[in-house]
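Page 37, continued from 36.
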């Protein structure tokens, strides 16, 4: 088992290609949530939908005060994530 710690995000990997990520601070939880919203918005931009609650598109627009259609909001969010990860000195997602 390989264990890496990167700014309080603990990544554990084993030989069966399973990976567990532990976000144990408020900042790392926020970063993980933004990454999850980015992934969900990417799927929504391709036409997929989930069955309950607000769409990732609506959530991102409301919380981050972004404007535009799904693809333009996704591009804006990708830039935000890139800047966020650059500031933290982590690999781009």
């Amino acid at each position: 088992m390989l264990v890496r710690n990167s700014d309080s995000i603990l990544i554990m990997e084993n030989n069966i290609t399973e990976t567990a990520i532990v976000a144990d601070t408020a900042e790392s939880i926020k970063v993980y949530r933004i990454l999850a919203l980015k992934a969900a918005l990417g799927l929504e931009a391709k036409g997929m939908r989930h069955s309950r609650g607000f769409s990732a598109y609506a959530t991102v627009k409301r919380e981050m005060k972004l404007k535009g259609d799904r693809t333009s909001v996704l591009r804006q969010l990708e830039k935000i994530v890139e800047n966020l990860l650059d500031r933290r000195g982590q690999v781009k997602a």
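The chain has one domain: 25-93. Flag for discussion at group meeting. The radius of gyration is 15 Å.
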